[in-house]
Specification:
The protein has about 350 residues and is α/β, with parallel strands linked by helices. It has helices at about 85-95, 100-115, 140-155, 185-200, 220-230, 245-255, 260-265, 280-290, 300-305, 310-315, 335-350, and strands at about 5-15, 20-30, 35-40, 50, 60-65, 120-125, 155-165, 205-210, 210, 235-240, 270-275, 295, 320-325.
Length: about 350
């Protein structure tokens, strides 16, 4: 027998709506979804009063859920030249210990903590596809299923971003042993994506996007074929220009920087989310801003890994679009993410109050 919908009214004296601050707002909620928002209203009998200003939740645009379990493990210096690349070696070791049940439990706890932090949707950049030997599970989307289950159990919306990851370096270099659980060919990736689409059909809380791990892990032919095969309206995420070594390797391979190459050879538009995009020239910044692509910033992870400082002041002047993700989840505080972003600009420029627009002064 179908259950009757659960409805509830909420009342707040102050809320931020799409039109700005509003007073005496009633929110009508049915089965966990807001169906009506009425400002300048009277509190109705039975309405739950919300204390303090009410703000909309936001989307966490970049997550590797399994990395939450290793937060803190990499804070002991075992290498005098400790860097992103030595951190990655530790991450590979952690990956070898996780089974599907582990992945669900870790993600569920993480997603609950995200909800508490004010996130209601998460972009799950998912590349832990196979078993510890690199063999596909009986259900090719087994690990993706665990993440969607975790989202359902926690009550968060998951934008599933199954990752195409085929190579260890620019130009189609063979993957290494530590990457075995991540690797798909173009064909097996398309099969995985179709399985995810079937699994998520009718799931109104969740979404499905397209994802390439990075330019070093895919080829131009792969990117073009996937984009030509899959729904052209889906969002597209990619790691890019996170580390100086990545930039230098891309220059050695192609004579162009990562964002420059992507813009010139594939093309950018508002579907694209360029995760990190830390090391950019002025022209690359303009290309991102002018095409409407999103810079996916993860300030606490980028600081933790020593990536560098995103040129946020210049990007703001260009009217660029950016969003926040917690990535490796060393922190789930949105305040800390934004503070780290702002303070990085201050440290670089040796000035205060850097990220603002003229209408905010």
């Amino acid at each position: 027998m179908a259950l009757s919908p659960v409805t509830q009214s909420y009342f707040t004296e102050l809320a931020w709506l799409s039109s700005g601050w509003a007073r005496n707002v009633t929110l009508e909620v049915c089965d966990g979804k807001i169906h009506q928002v009425e400002p300048n209203s009277q509190r109705q009998e039975g309405a739950i009063c919300l204390n303090g200003p009410v703000l909309p939740t936001i989307a966490n645009l970049h997550s590797h859920a399994f990395q939450r379990v290793m937060a803190g493990m990499a804070e002991v210096n075992l290498n005098p030249n400790d860097s992103f690349w030595s951190w990655r070696d530790l991450m590979y070791k952690v990956v070898q210990k996780l089974n599907p049940d582990d992945a669900r439990v870790i993600a569920k706890k993480l997603y609950i903590d995200m909800l508490k932090a004010g996130y209601s949707q998460v972009g799950e950049f998912h590349y832990l596809h196979h078993d510890v030997g690199g063999k596909a599970y009986g259900q090719v989307n087994e690990m993706a299923q665990q993440l969607i289950m975790a989202g359902d159990e926690a009550g968060i919306g998951v934008t599933m971003l199954p990752v195409l990851y085929s190579h260890s370096g620019f130009g189609g270099q063979d993957p290494n042993a530590g990457q075995a659980r991540f690797i798909n060919s173009t064909d097996s990736y398309l099969t995985l994506h179709q399985a995810c689409e079937t699994m998520m059909a009718g799931a109104d809380r969740h979404r499905l996007g397209i994802c390439f791990h990075s330019l070093r892990a895919t080829t131009q032919d792969q990117i073009e074929r996937v984009l030509a095969t899959l729904d052209c309206q889906k969002v597209v995420h990619i790691h890019i220009a996170e580390q100086q070594k990545e930039v230098q390797d891309c220059l050695a391979w192609s004579g162009q920087r990562p964002v420059e190459w992507l813009h010139n050879h594939v093309g950018l538009d508002s579907r694209w989310c360029l995760v990190h995009a830390t090391h950019l020239t002025e022209e690359e910044l303009k290309d991102i801003a002018n095409t409407g692509a999103v810079a996916g910033l993860c300030p606490t992870t980028e600081a933790n890994l020593g990536d560098g400082i995103f040129p946020g002041v210049d990007f703001e002047k260009l009217g660029g679009v950016w969003g926040i993700g917690s990535d490796s989840h060393v922190s789930l505080s949105l305040v800390e993410e934004l503070r780290t972003l702002e303070y990085g600009q201050r440290l670089r420029d040796q000035q205060r109050n850097r990220l603002y627009r003229a209408d905010q002064t």
